[in-house]
Amino acid sequence: MTDLLLIALLALLGAVTAGLLGALALRLLRHRPLVVSLTVVAAVAVTAMLAGTLAVAWAMFLSPHDLTVVTTVVAMAAVVSLATAMLLGRWVAARSRDLTMAARDFGEGGTFAAPEGQSTAELDALTRELAATSAKLESSRERERALERSRRELVAWISHDLRTPLTGLRAMSEALEDGLAQDSGRYLRQIRREVERMNDMVGDLFELSRIHAGSLTLAPTRVSAHDLVGDALAGAHPLAREHGVRLIGDRVDAVPVEVDSKEMSRVLGNLLINAIRRTPADGTVAVAAQSSSDGLVLSVTDGCGGIPEEDLARVFDTGWRGSPARTPPAGAGLGLAIVRGIVEAHSGRADVRNVAGGCCFEVTLPAARG
């Protein structure tokens, strides 16, 4: 038992010495390629075995021949181990270089293409994460490009929409100033209409800027969906009569909801104005409010004839109008963007889908608590 303990102690001392030297080497070479570190690890394992074996052999006073045999066997094992470590290190290093090149292309604005061939589980996990990140970034780039297109369109359209009434206002004011206006009352009424239109446009721009800046402050109160729809219908009736459109609001559940009444009235008002202007005379615009598993669903269905499928995803984008027209009643393309911003501020969502003869805008709001 004493001899066995002595042998174990000698082997441990030799292995510990080799391990400490290997740890020091790894620390000094930590910035070197992976193949160097793997070679050091293999060398440590073989050296620890060789040191322990030699220490035990000297303690047991083996013959020179036996000691040579043991040393030769350990040396052959060391050669094979080092060769295997180097091959493994070169393979892992090659896969790491391929992954680095793919990530470099991805970082320069391209898409991530995973290197071909097998790899370690860790590198495969890293490859999957890079591929998922690449997909998310590509989606973000596409949204950014769409927003930039919308911004450019909005600037162009707003510039046109402001320039047109300003030109008319200047012409009418000059006519009034020169005494050339035969019907000054008509000119004044037209000036007032243009000023009101510009005021509405500036108000929409201000509201949209608050939404985009995240400074829209809500004051939610508990109200009934019946009251929200009733107020919106009452405000839209004059415009509906002017366009010869019939309003229907007979499918309204008296469901309570916690919203900012002023902002939500603006949402329904924008949806109704948009629907009335797009619905031909003698058409119908229907408003409904029904409870669902997601909360309260407010819907406005018009008779516009439907929206092209390729435009459905852009309906709520800033500056989208649905037609290239830049004159009234086309508007500045801000109403539906404001709708989405206000609804999302209420933790809801706004959707649109085509129905027979028109389209249906739906606003889903969380149900009132309690």
UniProtKB/TrEMBL annotation:
The keyword Membrane applies. The chain crosses the membrane at residues 6-26, 38-61, 67-88. It comes from Streptomyces argenteolus. One of its GO terms (molecular function) is kinase activity. CDD domains: HATPase, HisKA. Its EC number is 2.7.13.3. It catalyses: ATP + protein L-histidine = ADP + protein N-phospho-L-histidine. It is found in: Cell membrane. PROSITE patterns: HIS_KIN. Residues 157-369 form the Histidine kinase domain. SMART domains: HATPase_c, HisKA. Keywords: Kinase, Membrane, Phosphoprotein, Transferase, Transmembrane, Transmembrane helix, Two-component regulatory system. This is histidine kinase. The keyword Transmembrane helix applies. Its main location: membrane. InterPro entries: HATPase_C_sf, HATPase_dom, His_kinase_dom, HisK_dim/P_dom, HisK_dim/P_sf, Sensor_HK_Regulatory, Sig_transdc_His_kin-like_C.
